[in-house]
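Researcher: Good morning. I'm working through a list of sequences from a screen, and I'd like to move beyond sequence-only analysis. For each chain I'm collecting a predicted structure so we can compare shapes side by side. This is the next one on the list. No need for commentary yet; just the structure.
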Amino acid sequence: MSAETHYLDAVESEENGDFDTAIEHAEKAVSIDPEHSDAWWMIASLYAPDGKYPDIVQASKAVSACKKVVEIDETRVDAWVKCGRLMVDHLGMHEQALGWWQSCREVAPLESVPIIEQVTILSDLGMYVEARDRLAALFEESLDIGNSQLARISQLHKTLEKAAEQDPRSHFRPEQKNHPGWTAIKMRCHKPPVSENMIFMMTTVPFLMAEVFISRGIFGDGWKGFCLTSILILVTVLFGMSFTRKIYQRVNKPGFNLLRAMQMEASCARVLIPDDIRNSKLYMYLYSRHPPAFQQRIEKIAQSEKRLQKGWKIKLPDFESHLDEIGYIEDTDDDENLKGYEEE
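Model: Good morning. Structure tokens for this chain:
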């Protein structure tokens, strides 16, 4: 049978809900024709369907299949995006994902998605200076930003602005064994995170109930009293939400730091988290909130007992490598006016 015949059989099996047979036919198709990008994409989609949670083997096979797709056809945006999301969300391969998105930039230098993904990764790892530089590049290069991305960019901007106001030494560095953040984690590790709803219920709801009881005596009955009471309740809710968010961030800061340590550990594939913290209630709570592939990767890293080398630093890709693809030329001493390459 030809590769195309196996591929068509795979499509038919998928439509009939027989996914195991579909994968079998798709893999036979690529074994006959390694350049069959549609078959590779089917393998990636079957091993890691959208909205599902593959295990570490399935996620790894899906990543490999996506890499084959873009190797054959570098214009496949869906494969670029799927692979990048699998690396970060399911496998915790943040460092590798940074390089992956930079490779995407080299193929599509005028796309904003790779930069937004890089900013998100750098921010999650606590590399706020690098993240700000990436976010600035988004506007310096005048890239098109979709409406669906504006909210995400706005949230990233707020996070980075808040980080800029803080002392850089206060930012948790999980690769540093003696960082004060580890002490805070150990003090809080035997308790699960406090939910934002619980803080709101404890700090704001009592005031709302009191306002409901006393508003009639203050504002009177009728539409006027109803409107004034509604305004008072609305203001209290807005103030309470803002206050709750601040308390939530402060109380759960050790949890956020431990989450960063887990992400860094998964990224570098070296043990960072001490055993006493790894067996704590806080760690198990955060661990259980991750996808199966991430959990299995973390477990394999812990079992390897390979500790992080002293002085280790995350390897960042060359964030300017895409400039060669768009014909960028540095200014010369003669200050010649050079026109930049514009993709049609």
